[in-house]
Design brief:
The complex is a heterotrimer. Chain A has eleven helices and no strands. By secondary structure, chain A is mainly α. Chain B has a two-stranded antiparallel sheet. The longest helix of chain B has 33 residues. Helix content of chain B is 62%, strand content 1%. Chain B is mostly helical. By secondary structure, chain C is α+β, with helices and mostly antiparallel strands. Chain C is 16% helix and 29% strand. In chain C, the strands form two sheets. A six-stranded antiparallel beta sheet of chain C has the order 1-10-9-4-3-2, with no helix packed on it. In chain C, strands 5-6-7-8 form a four-stranded antiparallel beta sheet, with no helix packed on it. Chains B and C meet through α7, α8, α13 and α14 of B and β3 of C.
């Protein structure tokens, strides 16, 4: 047997071994089994670990804002999504996720989340109608809001907001204590997909709400907040403490 | 062939080992002992051989330094040809070895093999069991990942409970003030030199005694062991017996080969164990879990009442070991057959069922909060359907306040507390408010961390959690 | 035996030889034992616990609990990441702090702070603590371990250096009860 022959045989055996070792199911993948938490940059993983609990799988069907709703995505800009994700919303149930604000995610991971949420949009809002601005231009007028409420909302939520044929109460003190004015604005503009609450265009079919009407309705809703929400026995006034934190 | 024989003769003339080996190999054993029930010990020894070989091969690459151990394991797993397979062999063989040692021990116990004159063989065997478990634990430490790091923390915390000298013992265990380089170095020495050295010595002693005293005969109900007569009876049995080689050894060989093949298949199919995340204590998103054979202990530590924990932790191991050591002293004579030893059989069953249940519990860890459930487990869509604005806020309170970490909803969430899918059937709204605010029954009081609005929303939501069409819980004192 | 081992000169010398070896062995055992017990005595006479800086006070907003990490004061060059120790800093108001060890008082697993519910939870055996470190539920017998701390030049400084266990904290660790 010549030397070259021997070497080619050895190479063949080694190759076969390598091939076998490639195909074995127990062979670990190229990455470490567990990444450092800050190295997780996969949107699906980050979303399902940090957001899905409240916003629902794939951004739908949760108790909080439906992030995948095209109307919401047309209405909220990246800066707003990023700000809320990073810093949370004070006095509401949305916590801060950025490390700088006491959360567990790096800025890079928050970028991944913002980009991933944005990618759900696909195109612009259906119908092409531009939604009202994310941030209200100025304070609304509660009195005008009451009138706008009667036009757009009373049909379902009742004349006083305490619930009606198609909608639940939206003036409950505890409810209003747990939602920010911005949250109310988002609800008015985007509706609540899970509850068939229509967005700003379809409260009255064919008559979208104007920017001012949205702001005013929110102002009227905010004016319905109570000083001591959630007291089980409202007749017993607390002496020296505020209602919400 | 002739040349080989000549070489053998030349060597044997100088070494003078042949006769001893031949004698040991062909020593007569009772006919009934050439049984498939007598193969576990030799199989454990075979697996120990695998461990020595794979262990040495891994030590060629492994770096026993706290800063680099994890990276060297990554190199083994990913960069070296079939390094992962050797790691997998070593890991799986360790599981097989613990299992075989335990099975061997149960077999020996149920067959009464520890009785006169083999008491010391059993006692040495108990030490072999402890060393095997010691190897399993120190091996888990050498796989220097998060589980290893926090496992050491658990070890140190248990040690720290020793009265008076606890602090000193912690420092000796860790080799310094913290879990670090010194700790890994000493566990490396334990795993690679100290315990294996002792293990080899004790295995030799164990085997020597098996050879000198003879393998246990197959027990027969009614054949009583008595110090005065046993040796004569055993001699009679071996007189009518068969030589170990080849009548019995072929079963050992076949079983041993099957075990080795099984380890190889497990290694190839399931791959190596870990390493999991880096051993960096600042990564606090860790949920440390011990390896399989220590899961029962993990359960026990969670389920013991707090005030019993220190005494049990510190007294249970020495008492258990003492009991094992005293077994042959306390029942060195008498019946060997399991049919005539109900207490022995019951003991094995109770211990096995207890350890099995604890291990099974540890696979679901119903006592641990699920740390990511609040943000990662969606509220089931069916549990949001038709809920009012306030109730939907309540569902958010439920998630945001981490209730989900301990309470399941729709089969997702922690199991520390009861599942709440039907809580409205059990508790009225007043009871819910009380439970949420004051806690109790192993639930923290949320009074300080829930505003009245949050409590109202939460309770409003919880009151909707019941199957449709069934009446909610009702306060019997109210009309 | 006694017949063959009559106290002859040779047996005497053998015994003397054994004694000699035992004596030398005993003397040599001293360095071995003190080498093995070295971890009990700090490093080069320095105590394990030293004052360590956690960072400027601005890092810790009032009313919040934040994770901080520090390099252990006593390290080996090959300690790597293991000498980076985390802890939880609770700033109650401008001057009042609490610094909790990361290690659960039960068996040392890393507790995690949940700001929304104001609880520390342990992933191992389900120990839970309130914001002030007192035990809320689960197997721990006491509240979280606390580091001694002070403020120096606008920085938070803690007395740290050892893995907190029930033994290490016996002197300083107060047994806490729920004050709810």
């Amino acid at each position: 047997m010549s030397g070259g022959d021997l070497w080619s045989r050895i190479a063949a055996v080694a190759g076969a071994l390598a091939l076998v070792s490639c195909d074995l199911p127990g062979r670990p993948g190229p990455e470490p089994e567990v990444l450092r938490p800050e190295q997780v940059l996969d949107f699906a993983t980050l979303y399902s670990q940090n957001c899905a609990g409240c916003h629902g799988e794939e951004g739908r069907g949760g108790a909080a804002v439906s992030l995948a709703d095209p109307v919401y995505l047309a209405y909220a800009d990246d800066a707003a999504v990023r700000r809320v994700t990073a810093n949370g919303v004070a006095h509401t149930l949305m916590p801060a996720f950025a490390r700088s604000a006491g959360g567990m995610l790096t800025d890079k991971q928050i970028d991944v989340l913002v980009r991933g949420i944005r990618a759900w949009a696909g195109g612009s809002a259906p119908g092409g109608l531009k939604p009202p601005a994310y941030t209200a231009a100025g304070p609304g007028d509660a009195a005008r809001g009451a009138a706008a409420y009667q036009t757009f909302c009373a049909r379902c939520h009742g004349p006083d907001g305490k619930g009606g044929s198609g909608g639940h109460s939206i003036v409950d003190g505890s409810f209003l204590a747990l939602i920010s004015d911005q949250g109310l604005r988002t609800a008015v503009v985007t509706g609540v997909p899970g509850l068939d609450a229509p967005d700003w265009r379809n409260d009255v079919p064919g008559r979208p709400m104007t920017e001012e009407e949205v702001t005013d309705v929110v102002a009227w809703l905010a004016s319905q907040r109570t000083q001591f929400p959630g007291r089980p026995y409202p007749s017993l006034q607390p002496k020296n403490q505020g209602g919400t934190q | 062939m002739r040349l080989l024989k000549a070489l053998g003769a030349w060597l044997d003339f100088r070494l003078r080992l042949g006769e001893g080996i031949r004698e040991a190999a062909t020593h007569p054993i009772p006919k009934s002992s050439a049984s498939w029930w007598y193969v576990f010990g030799s199989a454990a020894l075979t697996v120990f051989g695998i461990q020595v070989v794979t262990g040495i091969l891994l030590a060629i690459v492994y770096v026993p330094s706290a800063a680099q151990a994890w990276s060297s394991l990554q190199v083994l797993n990913h960069d070296l040809t079939l390094g992962w397979f050797l790691r997998a062999m070593h890991g799986w063989a360790s599981n097989f070895m613990v299992a075989l040692v335990l099975i061997h021990m149960i077999q020996v116990f149920l067959f009464g093999a520890y009785k006169f004159p083999r008491e010391l063989t059993w006692i040495v065997g108990v030490f072999l069991l402890l060393m095997t478990l010691g190897m399993a634990f120190t091996g888990q430490v050498l796989r220097f990942d998060q589980d290893a790091y926090w496992g050491l923390g658990i070890g140190a915390s248990i040690t720290g409970r020793v009265p008076v000298i606890g602090g000193a013992l912690v420092h000796l265990l860790l080799g310094g003030p913290i879990i670090g380089g010194d700790t890994l170095s000493r566990f490396f020495a334990l795993h690679v030199f100290i315990i294996p050295g002792l293990l080899i010595g004790f295995v030799g002693l164990h085997l020597l005694m098996v050879l000198k005293l003879g393998i246990n005969e197959w027990p027969m109900p009614g054949r009583i062991v008595r110090r005065e007569t046993y040796l004569k009876e055993y001699e009679q049995l071996t007189h009518e017996g068969v030589p170990f080689v080849p009548d019995a050894i072929w079963k050992d060989l076949v079983f041993g080969a099957a075990i080795v093949a099984a380890i190889g298949v497990c290694a190839a199919v399931f791959g190596p164990f870990g390493p999991k995340g880096q051993p960096d204590p600042t990564i606090i998103q860790a949920s440390p879990r011990p390896d399989f054979f220590f899961l029962w202990l993990f359960s026990l530590l969670s389920l013991l009442p707090p005030q019993m924990e220190t005494p049990v932790l510190l007294l249970m191991p020495p008492v258990a070991i003492l009991i094992l050591l005293l077994v042959p002293v306390l029942s060195g004579e008498g019946e060997k057959h399991w049919k005539k030893r109900p207490v022995a059989v019951l003991t094995v069953l109770v211990v096995a069922v207890a350890l099995g249940s604890f291990t099974h519990l540890a696979s679901t860890t119903p006592w641990s909060p699920e740390m990511d459930a609040w943000s990662g487990a969606p509220v089931p869509i069916s549990e949001l359907k038709g809920r009012s604005a306030l109730e939907r806020r309540g569902a958010l309170v439920f998630q945001a306040k981490q209730c989900r970490n301990c309470h399941r909803l729709g089969r997702e969430g922690g199991m520390r507390g009861p599942a709440l899918d039907e809580v409205a059937l059990r508790l009225t709204s007043d009871q819910l408010i009380r439970q949420v605010l004051q806690g109790g029954g192993n639930m923290p009081a949320y009074g300080k961390n829930l505003s009245p609005a949050e409590t109202t929303a939460l309770v409003a939501y919880l009151e909707t959690l019941k199957p449709a069409g069934r009446a909610p819980a009702h306060d019997a004192s109210q009309p | 035996m006694s017949e063959t081992l009559k106290p002859t000169r040779r047996t005497m010398l053998t015994r003397l030889g054994i004694l000699l070896n035992a004596g030398i062995g005993a003397v040599l055992a001293v360095p071995v034992v003190s080498y093995l017990l070295a971890p009990l005595r700090g490093k080069n006479g320095a105590p394990y616990n030293q004052w360590v800086k956690l960072g400027p006070l601005e890092q810790f907003p009032e009313g919040e609990t934040r994770l901080a990490t520090f390099r252990n004061p006593v390290v080996r060059p090959w300690d790597g990441q293991t000498a980076d120790i985390p802890c939880w800093v609770r700033r109650i108001d401008a001057e009042k702090f609490q610094v909790f060890a990361i290690n659960c008082a039960h068996l040392g697993c890393p507790v995690r702070w949940f700001a929304a519910s104001g609880l520390f939870m342990c992933p191992c055996h389900g120990g839970v603590y309130y914001a002030d470190g007192s035990r809320a539920s689960g197997p721990p017998e006491r509240g979280l371990f606390e580091y001694e701390h002070k403020v120096e030049d606008g920085e938070l400084v803690i007395l740290a250096g050892q893995l907190p266990t029930l033994a290490a904290q016996d002197r300083t660790g107060r047994r806490k009860t729920c004050d709810c």
